[in-house]
Amino acid sequence: MSTDNQIKEMVKQKYSEIALQDKEDNQASCCGSGCCSSEVYNIMTDDYSAVEGYNPDADLGLGCGLPTQFAKIKAGDTVIDLGSGAGNDCFIARKETGETGKVIGIDFTPAMIERARANAEKLNFNNVEFRQGDIEHMPVTANIADVIVSNCVLNLVPNKDGVFKEIFRVLKPGGHFSISDIVLSGSLPAKIQEAAEMYAGCVSGAIQKQEYLQLIEKNGFSNITIQKEKAIIVPDDILSGYLTPEEITAFRNSNTGIYSITVFAQKPAATACCEPGCCA
């Protein structure tokens, strides 16, 4: 792969294209010379249609979990969605936080922000807003969010450690996150690791599961819990764009696993003053 900035520009271009399509168009996409299962970026999506607050216009089929379902959002909370896309998780979070709360979606791609704002306007939501920005440098002040959610986005970011530092900065003391993301167990073939399309599809940008959890712990979070885990199987017709039949067989027989995990963690509450003069 290329430099961090080149990777970001590649991701921005790909998701700008996706923002202009409907979910059905995305799922009917073909790769290579013949029709295939789907593009790699939407083989992992979960079904949101039965979740309260779901809006079909905001669902582009890009996630790998249902983080808002596990996020313990309460009425009146301030919720931030990282990589908010067309607004899908924001609108579901808004159902939980209600009219007394606030939801902020942050996305790197101007076309996604434009689409999300149009969706919010159609729904007449005045407590949901969308801000363009890099989640490594969030356009929000510190200690503002009760809850942060994200759905299959951190694997697209080269500096994952920087994102977790920003999450810690932005959460209120005692606040928490619930994030769905792609992680690995074992090594991907070099041809997959080097493919830009597999990076934009959330696979080659993924890191080892243990490394991912250690980054969370390293940045000061507590109560780290895996709320859900599922294996992701990349179909052969997608792999065939990068690997020979023999290489696909070797990959299938290896110990490498690709997983979607939904992780919960909490920013510790401020230390209480326990001795006379300790808060002076």
Description of the molecule:
- Helix 1 (4-19) packs parallel to helix 5 (110-123).
- This protein is of the alpha/beta class and 280 residues long.
- It has helices at 4-19, 23-27, 67-70, 88-97, 110-123, 160-170, 190-193, 196-200, 209-218, 236-239, 245-253, and strands spanning 78-82, 102-107, 128-132, 145-151, 171-185, 207-208, 222-231, 257-266.
- Strands 1, 2, 3, 4, 5, 6, 7 and 8 form an eight-stranded mixed β-sheet that branches.
- Residues 27-38 and 271-280 have low confidence and may be disordered.
- Strand 1 (78-82), helix 4 (88-97) and strand 2 form a beta-alpha-beta unit.
- Helix content is 33%, strand content 21%.
- The protein contains eleven helices and eight strands.
Query: What does the radius of gyration come to?
Result: 19 Å
Fraction of residues in H or I helices: 25-40%
Biggest sheet details: 8 strands, mixed
Please tell me the overall pLDDT.
85
Number of distinct helices: 11
User: Quick one: overall form?
Assistant: globular
> Which secondary-structure class do the elements indicate?
alpha/beta
Which band does the percent of strand residues land in? 15-25%
Unreliable residue runs: 27-38, 271-280
Element-level helix/strand string: HHHEHEHEEHEHHEHEHHE
Compute the number of strand runs: 8
Give the distance, in angstroms, between the N- and C-terminal Cα atoms. Answer: 52 Å
